[in-house]
Amino acid sequence: MIPYTVNIKLAARTLTGTLNLQNKTAVDWGWQGLIAQGCHSSILIIDPKTAQTIQVLERHKANVVKVKWSRENYYHNLSSPYCLRLASGDASGKIVVWDVVSGTAHCEIQEHSKPIQDLEWLWNQDASRDLLLAVHPPNYIVLWNGDTGTKLWKKSYAENILSFSFDPFDPSNMALLTSEGIVFITDFSHSKPPGSAGKKVYIASPHASPAHTKPAPAAAPAPTGAKKALNKVKVLITNEKPTAEAVTLNDCLQLSYLPSKRNHMLLLYPREILILDLELSQTVGVVAIERSGVPFIQVIPCAQRDALYCLHENGCITLRVCRSTAAPEEAADPEQSVQELVYDLRSQCDAIRVTKTVRPYRMVICPVNENSAALMVSDGRVMLWELKAYTGRAAANPSSGLSPLYSPVSFCGAPLGPNQKRIQDLSLNSMIGQTLIAGETPPQSSNQQEVQLKFLLTGLLSGLPLPPFALRMCPPLTTKNINHYQPLLAVGTSNGSVLVYNLTSGLLHKELSVHSCEVRGIEWVSLTSFLSFATSAPNNMGLVRNELQHVDLPTGRCFAFRGERGNDEPPIEMIKVSHLKQYLVVVFRDKPLELWDIRTGTLLREMAKNFPTVTALEWSPSHNLKSLKKKQMAAREAMARQTVSDAEQSSVESSVISLLQDAESKSETSQAISAREHFVFTDTDGQVYHITVEGNTVKDGARIPPDGSMGSIACIAWKGDTLVLGDVDGNLNFWDLKARLSRGIPTHRGWVKKIRFAPGKGNQKLLVMYTDGAEVWDTKEVQMVSSMRIGRNVNYRILDIDWCTSDKVVLASDDGCIRVLEMAMKSASYRMDEQDLTDPVWCPYLLLPRAALTLKAFLLLQPWSGTFTMDITQVDYNEKVEIKGLIQEQLNSLSNDMKSVLQDPELSLLQRCLLVSRLFGDESDLNFWTVASHYLQSFAQARQLIVSTAEGQAQNEGTQPSPQNHLDICHDVLCESSYFQKFQLDRVHLQEVKRSSYEHTKKCADQLLLLGQTDRAVQLLLETSADNSSYYCDSLKACLVTTITSSGPSQSTIKLVATNMIANGKLAEGVQLLCLIDKAADACRYLQTYGEWNRAAWLAKVRLNPAESSDVLKRWAEHLCSPQVNQKSKAILVLLSLGCFYKVGEMLHSMRHFDRAALFIEACLKYGVMEANDSSNILLEDPLLCSLRAAFLDYARLLRSLGLREGAALWASRAGSAGEQLMEELFQGEGVTPEAIPAEEEVEPNKKSTE
């Protein structure tokens, strides 16, 4: 016999259903590009691009309440590779850190037994990426090492902590949302717990704070509803607990820092979002909902643009973008232009139908591109929305008053080439331009396109409906059906529909609405059709409506199998189909059974009234089909022989014979041979009856008296020579029919609900279902193979069971999931690489670490070939075929747009680096290349300007590129000074409008003095009322500020006073005085001496000239590089913004970031901001060149270790004399063998040393 190979390897998997309320907050979208979602005690990993579940993690015993992907903001190499790491916390206080690809746990952490409130990976220092901060109720925050599970420190607070948020600009700041208010912590560090208890802040309610509503000017019209809400602005009260009626403590749903600008925070209430400026502790913006509007559930602030994604209670997601504060020319009233930050509604998606059981839970947005959102619905659905930008003006709607949004004219951080391909919807910052601020000139609208934003539903995952379920696997795989076999599982649901799943992919194959009430059971009658029955709720007589439907899968046709019967009769208990799928027995509760012929759909026999009540029934696997076929063949041969011998017989007879033959052949095609089949059943006394069915005759056979040790028989299973009976007391009775032996075994597990033999010849495994779990038995040895029990190793109840292959079982459980498990019935996650996915998934993290790095190098640069290829086989790459294949699969799964952009010859090196870091979701790469590409271009332009002015630029004025856009404000102090100053002035102006108390006014005046706005500051100082204790002080200060002259003696006095103040601990006041006499550089130095590094950088940006400012920032960069701070990556960004490109190249190389260093130096040379003269006439002493070459050489070695030889050769050839040696090693022995195999082997030991 030919050995068949067929892919019927079903992966162990979990089909999930509705969510538990505790899963509400358990969802996260990682930089890795995948969504993790808790569903009961399992965690689904979803690929949002193809809307497939690619992994289900099972280890928690309780409901999962939080999941968090680790951050990707570190440099990736072989020792710290791209890997999928996820932390999850459950309702019993356990935290598991997962390796998602293999589905195994790195470590498990348990501190208390209450649900975890919040989880976050620390991302702030370069030393360790394994630190995990968790809130353990009621009031502890604990820092764990997420790799080893050791506790680093623990700190308790006075109030119950609900959640926390880190300041994205300064990792030592965090805010805790507690049951009473907010606690600000300013000394967070991973090395020791925060020292202080933090600064407690209470939130005054908007409804009852008359003290803070500003009196409206008399002439102003009465404010409308929305405006009223804006007047009653919430204020943070720091000193004392507010009075009870003034405060509604727990209606704050969420707090988060804004990642788009420093020192701003949002607070979410059901009907409004408050934007706070933390320097003032004062609201500077409100997004309020009209009275008829739908309340908020959640809001996610974006980093790339000042925008908010809001989720409403009807499942609608809205995008609000901050309005430009640049006053439009036609605005008549300048006062009105800057009242507060306004977030305009720019786009919204469709709502869902909310019912008692269906409501939106959470949304997550893609952290890399911020232009797609996923909505989790309580019924297990995941809706994937993408934001699309459409060019073209909106229909004229002047009343809306929205200023148009423009799309940026650049792609991946560089201006577009004339015929360059681009992806408009790559990310949020490539879709809409920056929000303008006051004092900025709006760009010429000639070269900008106006865009509209729309949400598009691009994917939908739906889960199983609510339990209970009835399961039945289709007939097993045999040698005859191997070519067209599909492993289909039919699932009957409580609403009457039958779902058919294909278990190879785990996807829904068909959903058929068959019944009008709960499906009780399903039996397959062929590989493509099944019978299912459902019973309605009983009436007062105890009678029901029975529905028995025959369904044909390919066509979806379904008809009532019992015709008109079924109304007002006792309920059907079970249906059983015979082995040859010829006959069907329908057993009723208080009515004799019916016997049907499936092939013709006719009722063969309805048993008499005195027929015994059936408690269990099973068809025998033995039948006489083979002997019948033999007889038939013999008869046919005899007939043929006869026709030949009596050829000369009359034509009449021959026609009769041909008719007979026709009938015979027809009967064979329609299989109208009725083979004899038997079934056995037991009655209430335990007596076993044996009945034979052949054609339409039914014979009663032998009866076997009851076994005294057994109770009432609940179920029977029969395979080969083994018959097994199970009873209501948990006894199993094994009968060996050949040896005529019986053996009873008490399992002590209570009622035996179901028993099923495994498919496959000679496979005598038996699956037994009890009320509290299931067991697998080996009936040959009569011993238990495996067992699962609720409360012992699982926390769900089993509703139904079946075999899906000869060694895998499928279980339906009351947590709404259906699990395919190994025979050992241990719920396990599967390896992701063993899966058969219908759509290929782009996720380099699924590759082996080395392969992922190879893929990245392959996408970054292919300078050895004239064109850019997306086919790895065209590259000289020595690697196993399987790994090559996996890399190629990843390349193939990229979208066509992405492929065409990557292959576009116009795409510059910087754009390519940015694009690839986006594709990989590599946070640290993305930050580095964004800043690098911006400053490389702006310094190159500045250089060009200097050169062109030197040459007299009259002729090339037209070719001069327009000055670059500024860096987004989310990069804070990395922005250009001019833009940074404008932004800070804008902000102070807003604070001034919003101030509502003396404290606020004082803070504003201080800021204005530092910014050099003395006139405005004096006005504010003179506002102090006479009964204020600091009235005298402020008045004198105002006089001082106005009378400061630049005469020498007054300057030196003030300087002396300032230094004394600083020495006596009045740092802020001293710095202010120094700023008054334009000694801001000294002020920065003092600030740095006292450890106020961020403040010093801020001051340098807003007050100093470029040279002085650069000195201050360089000192800061040195401080960041020091071992106790260890934030070299941040230092590199600071140096980039200063244009210290040589230093950056050296630092990258010394940090062993070889690929980044080499590509960066290459880009610098391209843009002409670094000079490397021709290699021939260079003195080797030049240290700079040596470091450049060393970087190139190390990158070449890295590429060689990854197996990319052509790349290695290219970089080695540029690394001078040292590179020549590597070239020799690379191509050594080329003359001997084309494959250079010996050379590879000689390289091997070297490989390790270069890593």
From TrEMBL:
SUPFAM superfamilies for this protein: WD40 repeat-like
Domain WDR11 TPR: 996-1166
Record-annotated WDR11 first beta-propeller domain positions: 22-318
Gene Ontology cellular-component annotations: axoneme; cytoplasmic vesicle; Golgi apparatus; nucleus
Residues spanning the membrane: none
Annotated segments matching region Disordered: 1231-1251
Major place of residence: cytoplasm
Database matches in InterPro entries: Beta-prop_WDR11_1st, Beta-prop_WDR11_2nd, TPR_WDR11, WD40/YVTN_repeat-like_dom_sf, WD40_repeat_dom_sf, WD40_rpt, WDR11
Claim: Repeat is one of the keywords in the record: yes
Domain spans labelled WDR11 second beta-propeller: 486-826
GO biological process entries: animal organ development; cilium assembly
Gene3D superfamilies associated with the record: YVTN repeat-like/Quinoprotein amine dehydrogenase
Subcellular location per the Swiss-Prot or TrEMBL entry: Cytoplasm, Cytoskeleton, Cilium axoneme; Cytoplasm, Cytoskeleton, Cilium basal body; Cytoplasmic vesicle; Golgi apparatus, trans-Golgi network
Entry keywords, A to Z: Cell projection, Cytoplasm, Cytoplasmic vesicle, Cytoskeleton, Golgi apparatus, Nucleus, Phosphoprotein, Repeat, WD repeat
Cited PANTHER family: WD REPEAT-CONTAINING PROTEIN 11
UniProt-recorded name of the protein: WD repeat-containing protein 11
Originating species: Amphiprion ocellaris
Gene that encodes it: WDR11
